[in-house]
C-alpha cells in the first residue's frame, strides 16, 4: 500500500523561549500537525498559529532537543514529540 500523500496527524508539544514565548503568550502549547512534514512548513505553521511574524526570519527550531539546520529536512513526528522555537540569543 502506498502511503505517499497520506497525512496522519499527531499532537506535539511546542516549547517557546525568549521573544517567541512573549509573542506566543505561553511557554508551552500542544499543536496538531502532519506526522511527516518539512521543517520549513512546520515553522511556517507555528509562525502563523502563534503570532511570531515579527521574528519569523530569525527563528531556529529543534526536534526533541536536536537543532534543525536545514528547513528542507523532512521531520518524522510522533505523539508527544517536542519542538522548541528558539529566537537568536542577543547579548552585549
TrEMBL record:
NAD recorded as keyword: no
Keyword Lipid metabolism appears in the UniProt entry: no
CDD domains tied to this protein: Ubl_MoaD
GO molecular function: nucleotide binding
GO cellular component, one term: molybdopterin adenylyltransferase complex
InterPro entries: Beta-grasp_dom_sf, MOCS2A, Mopterin_synth/thiamin_S_b, ThiS/MoaD-like
Keywords on record: Molybdenum cofactor biosynthesis, Nucleotide-binding
Pathway: Cofactor biosynthesis; molybdopterin biosynthesis
Name of this chain's protein: Molybdopterin synthase sulfur carrier subunit
Organism: Drosophila hydei
Amino acid at each position: 500500500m502506498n502511503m505517499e500523500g497520506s497525512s496522519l496527524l499527531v499532537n506535539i508539544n511546542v516549547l517557546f523561549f525568549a521573544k517567541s514565548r512573549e509573542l506566543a503568550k505561553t511557554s508551552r502549547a500542544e499543536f496538531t500537525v502532519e506526522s511527516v512534514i518539512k521543517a520549513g512548513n512546520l515553522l511556517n505553521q507555528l509562525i502563523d498559529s502563534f503570532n511570531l511574524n515579527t521574528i519569523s526570519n530569525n527563528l531556529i527550531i529543534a526536534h526533541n532537543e536536536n537543532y534543525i539546520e536545514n528547513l528542507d529536512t523532512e521531520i518524522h513526528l510522533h505523539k508527544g514529540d517536542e519542538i522548541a522555537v528558539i529566537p537568536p540569543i542577543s547579548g552585549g
